[in-house]
Amino acid sequence: MNKILILFIIISLAGCASAPKRPLPSEPSSTIAHTKKSGGYYMDDGPGDNPPANLDAIPDAIPKIEPLHKYANRPYVTLGESYTPLTEISTYQAQGIASWYGKKFNGKPTSSGEPYDMYGMSAAHLTLPIPSYARVKSLTTGKSVIVRINDRGPFHSKRIIDLSYTAAYKLGIVQGGSGMVEVTAITPAEISQGRDIPATTTGIFLQLGSFSNRDNAEKLLARASTQLSKSNAALVILTKQDHYRVALGPYEDDDSAKIAAQEIESRMNLKPIRTVIE
Known about the structure:
Blueprint: H1 3-17, E1 76-78, E2 81-83, E3 93-101, E4 122-124, E5 132-138, E6 144-151, E7 159-164, H2 165-171, E8 178-186, H3 188-192, E9 203-211, H4 214-227, E10 234-240, E11 243-251, H5 254-268, E12 273-277
Parallel strand pairs: 3-7, 4-6
Antiparallel strand pairs: 1-2, 3-8, 4-7, 5-6, 5-8, 9-11, 9-12, 10-11
């Protein structure tokens, strides 16, 4: 082995030392499969052998206000490129190519230190804070999901986000391996806005579900936020005596409530219950 090659190896190892925890793909981009049958994952990657029976039923990530990771948001260098992650969660929106990663990384540590779960609703991003949440919409299928950012990547040009297998499946981009998407950060203000409303709030509400467990209410709220278009009314949780009702409202008049009810029925296949709080 000549001296030049040895020097190249030493420099490469030094560069990797400053990279995030996620194991980086060793293959160059030319080794990525692009056929419809195999998908756009690495040659030794791909979907698991025994995926859950109903991936569509796996709920989206539920946005929460969490403290940022102590180390995962520091500037880093990988594959010769320097990146400076955001150190606060703020407005962010970008369009570009989304890819996904599967069994090759499943169970291995992400940049947050958490094990990667290919059947969870997570994603890797080059600079969005860890942890944070983002809404990802496929510009081809029109479907959208909410994911939790807990990893760094993708380290390939023109790609802006690396999705978990399930997130890519729900967006309809698994078979092609990648797809054009729009990524929108979910800010703390958006997370907290309108979630729990004061007991004195009045108006017409459309109840989507009622639960004794708040986590179940949060799951339905997260699902509704991805399936319903934004309107003047907000998705809220009405709390009364340890009971949690997910609702849309308040509406000032019946006509507005009826239009919203029609959208709920068509988009969610769910008939809301009209509730009036005076």
